Amino acid sequence: MWNQLQTAAYEGMLAEIITLKGHNGDAIHAYFARPLGSGPYPGVVLIPHMPGWDEFYREMARRFTQHGYAAICPDLNCRIGHGTPEDMAAMARGQGGVPDDQVVGDCEAAMRYLKALPFSNGKVGIIGTCSGGRQTYLVACRTQGFDAAVDCWGGRVVMAQQELTANQPVAPIDYTKDLSCPLLGLFGEDDQNPPPAQVQQHEEELKKHGKSYEFHMYPGAGHGFFYYDRPAYRQQQAMDGWQKVFTFFGRHLQS
Amino acid sequence: MCTGIVETAELSGSGKGAQGWFPVTQANVGFDHPSHVALDYAVLIDFVNPAQGPGARVAVELTAESARGLARAILTALEAGEAQNVLAPSSR
Lengths: 255, 92
Hints:
The complex is a heterodimer. Chain A is α/β, with parallel strands linked by helices. Helices cover 32% and strands 22% of the residues of chain A. Chain A has one domain: Rossmann fold (3-Layer(aba) Sandwich), CATH 3.40.50. Chain A contains 6 helices and 8 strands. Chain A has an 8-stranded mixed β-sheet with strand order 1-2-4-3-5-6-7-8, sandwiched between helices. Chain B is globular. The mean pLDDT of chain B is 93. Chain B has one domain (6-85). Chain B is 22% helix and 41% strand. In chain B, 26% of the residues are buried. Chains A and B meet through helix 2 of A and strand 2 and strand 3 of B.
């Protein structure tokens, strides 16, 4: 995967902010990156992590595009206002986070946007990290139309009754019977959220409902081991994780 | 938000942010991933004025231990104010 490009091959991309009709038809911004060419290309919806609609996620979108995917990352905090990613994430946090229903609606809209593109191959995956991992699972359970989902260390898939709020009223694990596509999960053994015991509980629920999934638990890694801008970054685990993401999406989205 | 932990307090006072002083009306206290301090989780305190937009914010990210120390220091300072009779009874 890494550095397997051909030096003689043409490569180009377009990356820009677009306006998307999200949940309830609300206009929201999205970062959209696509290869320059006629395709057909598979698509990927990216759900940002707790630090918000930030530079890391824009780079991540361009990384998918470099590998032949149309990638879209909706600004889930768009309705709250605009500022730096940090300020917007703080504002969303102060409001108890964005409502789950709204996230599901925004991501479903992003999936439909990708599928309607003239250069789409008709397949779309979804990926998210941290809170975006939890939301990825939620979206994959509550919508139809995604062809593969990747949950990277999503905490609070398992939620105690006292953790439920008006914005997050149902624990995602309770939707497991409705999971609509194959699932890849990447986790760190030293993570506190989700701890390995919760990952195991999630896995048992997937088995119980006969779902297609593969989980990988990395020793020597905690939460957020892809984040090269944070001390949590783990080079070996991150590179292996990216390999697994591209292999998984390649299997389910490129055929 | 990853942990979902956030407590909100109504405030009355001022804070100095990137654009200077502004009226602070609320504090959001979370325990979640920080943006700057080199920790997986930290106590995140945002002194904000939502009516003035997302930029009206004074942010701190603290270790759990130092956040407890801060909470104690605030209470200790208030007690000292009471002892010196500079804290009006109505403020107690």
